[in-house]
Amino acid sequence: MRRRSVVAAALSLASLGSLALTTHLYLWPGAPAPWLLAAPVPPPAIEPRPAFPTRIRGVDVRPGDNLVSALARAGVDARTAWEITARLGQKGAELRKLRPGAALEVTWNFRREPIEVRYAPSPWIRFAAAPANGSWEVTRSQIEPEVRVEAVQGRVRRSLFEAVEEAGESPQLVFAMVEIFSSDFDFTADTRQGDQFRLLLEKRYARGVFVDYGRILATQYASGGRTLSGVGYARRGEARWTYYDPSGHSLRKSFLKSPLEFTRITSGFMYARPHPILGGVRPHLAIDYAAPAGTPVRAVADGVVTEAGWDGGNGISVTIRHRSGYATMYNHLSKLAAELRPGARVSQRQVIGFVGATGLATGPHLDYRVSKNGQFVNPFGERFIPGEPIAAAERAAFVDHARALLRRLEDATPF
């Protein structure tokens, strides 16, 4: 009985202590609650201030633009544009004449002030200008092209251009290939359906994106049972890349096969042809090439201009004297190239004028003539002087080089 009384008394004292503690906690202001002591509550997060809005505006670079004019068109004031141009120039940027298509961007802040100008004249070089210490600070970055050697092939169905595009390549590849064989094959007259081509060439990439072509290492063009082969090679002590056949003979002859890049022959060399304007049958000691007005006309060989200007029924005409007694004549031009006059020296492939229909012409075309020792000859029947071959001391090394490249080309792109 006494024991139960002691237990009851202890329970009563515990209850009173609990009540006192509870009263102590709640009656004393500022005292922390027990659960806060066990797990503190973190302070509320501070929201970051929103960044001031900026706006990036690309600038369309037009033909004839300089940096000042391009920035002014974008809204940059003249003083700032001149200062940025000066700073970029100090870093080596060529700014007097921008290349159309070059990347140019201006970043503006919320007060409509330019805070950065980025200029990339090529995929390999970039400039960035930003305000610093009351002026503009420019940084320049440059990357090396990633060069990959790849093989390309195609078959002509309607045109060489279309065939190259079907192969997924750029038309500029057509001109490069045509130039290699321009002394041995007339692509304006001899290209036919079913012709095949293949090239082993360098392609240049910037950050994994294709930019342009490098050198053509080797190429072949097959037409009418004949296969032309060209291999690029720099002779000992020379930096120039020249093309040769597999035995080392130069593909660059003293005369081109045609004065035009691409066109078609409408009238060949003949001693009796009905004249379309004067009537009757007359000699036609020329090759007529149909081409749109304004098509560039090239000198087929190095030489000196002896006549340039109006020449009666020939219209605007140019005559060039070459070595070994040869001369060439280009008639019915729409105009002459700038600064072309008698006595001027011209080089092979130099543009001397543009296709037209001046004089006795029924439409735009080029009347092209070749004479030897004063007598007109059929240019397709002449065997012109070839370029310098590979020297005997280098011949063995070149032949090994050519065989390796052509074998690689043939294995990658079999006909």
Total domain modules: 3
**What is the CATH class of the largest domain?**
Mainly Beta
Percentage of helical residues? Answer: 10-25%
Overall number of strands? 22
Order of helices and strands: HHEHHEEEEEHHEEEEEEEEEEEEEEEEH
Mean pLDDT: 84
CATH architecture of the largest domain: Distorted Sandwich
Radius of gyration: 39 Å
**Beta-strand content estimate:** 25-35%
Number of H- or I-type helical stretches? 7
Shape: globular
Low-confidence stretches: 1-38, 264-283
Per the CATH scheme, the topology name of the largest domain is Glucose Permease (Domain IIA)
Q: Which structural class best describes the helix and strand composition?
A: alpha+beta
End-to-end separation: 118 Å
- Main sheet? 10 strands, antiparallel
- Name the CATH superfamily classification of the largest domain: Glucose Permease (Domain IIA)
What does this structure look like?
The protein has seven helices and 22 strands. The protein is of the alpha+beta class and about 425 residues long. The chain has three domains: about 55-140, Nuclear Transport Factor 2, Chain: A, CATH 3.10.450.350; about 145-245, Nuclear Transport Factor 2, Chain: A (Roll); about 265-380, Distorted Sandwich (Glucose Permease (Domain IIA)), CATH 2.70.70. Strand 3 and strand 4 form a beta hairpin.
Sum up the structure in keywords.
Glucose Permease (Domain IIA); five-stranded antiparallel β-sheet; 7 helices; disordered N terminus
